[in-house]
Design goal:
Layout: E1 3-7, E2 10-11, E3 18-25, E4 34-39, E5 46-51, E6 57-59, E7 67-72, E8 77-82, E9 91-97, E10 112-113, E11 117-120
């Protein structure tokens, strides 16, 4: 079974950068659709960035141009580079994967989840 473990979270001032990494084990991620989600208390998890089985990338409008997503199949990692962070980016970030093709989907479509990691951008 696929296991996902996030790292790299923390607190950063507005305008700064953070890089999240998701280490995968248990099965190859070469063709797995994967995504990063953000969860804020009281709201549902929302997709931030995704990469589908054809390695097409998609981003939520509020991070477009500031965040990048990258999958390294040799290292079995999925990274999220977050630049020019805003206070609205605060939340728990989760790495997720599913079997299929598409990745920019609702959270309920994903089977595999990491434990989550906190990102805080003080206002």
């Amino acid at each position: 079974r696929l296991q996902l473990v996030e790292s790299g979270g923390g607190s950063v001032q507005a305008g700064g950068s953070l890089r999240l990494s998701c280490a995968a084990s248990g099965m190859p991620i070469t063709n797995l659709p994967m995504a990063w989600f953000r969860h804020v208390s009281g709201r549902s998890r929302e997709v931030v960035a995704s990469i589908d089985s054809d390695n097409d990338e998609r981003f939520s409008p509020y991070v477009e141009g500031r965040f990048t997503i990258s999958k390294d199949t040799d290292k079995s990692t999925l990274d999220l580079q977050m630049n020019r962070l805003r206070p609205g980016a605060t939340g728990m970030y989760y790495c997720a994967a599913r079997e299929g093709w598409a990745a920019h989907l609702d959270a309920k479509e994903f089977t595999y989840w990491g434990q989550g990691i906190q990102v805080t951008v003080p206002s």
